Amino acid sequence: MERDAQADRGYAHIPVMLEEVLALAPAGPAPWILDATFGRGGHSRALLARLGPEARLFALDRDPEALAAARALAAEDPRVTVVPSPFGALAEALAPHLQGRGLDGVLMDLGVSSPQLDDPARGFSFRNDGPLDMRMSGEGRSAAEVLAQSEEGELAHIFKELGEERFARRIARALVAARESGVVFTRTRQLAEAVAEAHPAWSPDRHPATRVFMALRLYVNDELGQLEAGLRGAVELLAPAGRLLVISFHSLEDRIVKRFLRREAQGEPLPRGLPVRGPAPGVRLRLLGKGQGPSAEELAANPRARSARLRAAERLVA
Ligand SMILES: C[S@@+](CC[C@H](N)C(=O)[O-])C[C@H]1O[C@@H](n2cnc3c(N)ncnc32)[C@H](O)[C@@H]1O
Hints:
The protein has helices at residues 5-8, 18-24, 42-48, 64-76, 90-98, 114-118, 143-149, 152-163, 168-180, 188-198, 210-220, 223-237, 251-266, 296-301; strands at residues 32-35, 56-61, 80-84, 103-109, 238-248, 285-287, 309-315. It folds into two domains: 5-115 and 223-315, Vaccinia Virus protein VP39 (Rossmann fold), CATH 3.40.50.150; 138-220, Putative methyltransferase TM0872, insert domain (DNA polymerase, domain 1, Orthogonal Bundle). It is 43% helix and 14% strand. The chain is α/β, with parallel strands linked by helices. α3 links the parallel β1 (32-35) and β2. The protein has a seven-stranded mixed beta sheet with strand order 3-2-1-4-5-7-6, sandwiched between helices. It binds S-adenosylmethionine (SAM). Residues 13, 15, 37, 39-43, 61-63, 66, 86-88, 109, 111, 113, 136, 226 line the site of S-adenosylmethionine.
């Protein structure tokens, strides 16, 4: 995770890689599309602008504020249906709306939105002080609860595996020692300062708490588990020739997306030497090019899009 995802999404909600998304997404009079990460609807609005009156757009999110924005759009545009759900459960959440019909497109623009990051009350950012929350849906354990309840080994594991933090063990030890001396971590700045104090290797271009915050955010929201389940659900729901587009923002996510798409495009490994005609069993997707990053023009206009990576694939006829 070589990039500072906190900084990456700091801009107002400019939809990332919009041109590339529009080039790959279905258009025309009547496609049915799922925006599985509605956010503030930047991508959704641009998609809707090229769709006809018979088209449908399902606006899914798990954040109450994003859902409020989706409901406002749905009130103006009868093609929009709001689906409050984590995308890890998208197949179940969409089933009643689809009634057997497949989707022509699914978009996942992963991570947190700028409005989430910029609102100190959500607790995602160490740049602005706020309660140590980090829950996208407002449900489940907050970051403060995870910090209060986890053993040193568990915290070290979270920081190392999800934040790729080299000094995970040392930081976990310092936080637990502070806890044992009566400190209760409740604020983002308070945690950032404690991590900074424990971190032995400051770098000029990254706050020393960046990786710990990233790790806690991924953990609190089970973002990688959600991604695995969301990808599986999306492929299930795609109609033949339907397209899956995923924008990721750091290497752990991108690795999951890349491996998933590769597996779906190559099928089950077969014993060597078997004469097989046509696609191997289990092949459900065709890759649409390799992963791509933002254009030079987009980077010039929005340098914080630099860590975005878009991967796309098309559902084969079952
Ligand atoms: C990067 S923003 C999307 C921005 C959006 N494309 C736009 O143009 O406004 C990601 C959104 O996905 C939502 N999200 C992240 N993980 C989710 C999950 N597992 N289930 C549902 N929504 C999720 C977040 O709440 C956030 O609103």
